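Attaching the record inline, Q. Sequence:
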Amino acid sequence: MAITNRSAILAPLILLALLALMTAWINHVVQTPAAKLDGSQRHDPDYIVRNFVTTQTDNLGHLHYKLAALEMKHFADDDSTHLQRPRYTQFGTKQFYTEVQAQRGYVSSDGERVQLLDNVKITRRRLADKAEMSIATQDLIILPKQDLLHTASPVVIRQAPKTVIYATGMVFDKKKHILTLLHQVRAHYEKAGATPAAPLKPKTAKMPGNHA
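Structure, as predicted:
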């Protein structure tokens, strides 16, 4: 009889203990993870570099491109890099190079995508057989490994002595030396001493051989 009474007392105690353990386990599984105290979950820069410069060479050791900025900030929470006054220079053969400047920029975590914003200017330096050419826009995407530059924004292209082209959207393939203007293209060309020509009607233009 004593054994039966003892069993009757212990059974509820064991059940309560199991319920307590189960409740503790459920709370542990569903509770929100505690915030880290190392700052990695806040959008604060974990390091800042002033007068930042990085370069990349090709398989032969020739300088391929250089990316510089007055200031570079890296953010640990999304592994992004922010640039102030970035300057991207893409090099070619025979001292040929193209320079891109902007007010600010962003670099993807893998370094394969650079976005430049605000007063973006692309300049192809003057060569012996080619006049200097500049392209102005408000934003630009650069894919360094693919040698591609593109934008969906309006662009203004100026080439000496007096050629001006307006368009919306542009893709420049440096490997193929092709500059493609996408929409609403207007061109104004004026020869020295000639009467100014009327602007062309908008059209899509493809300009091979510009070496921009």
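The chain has two domains: 1-31, 45-208. Confidence is low (pLDDT under 50) at residues 199-212.

More tomorrow.
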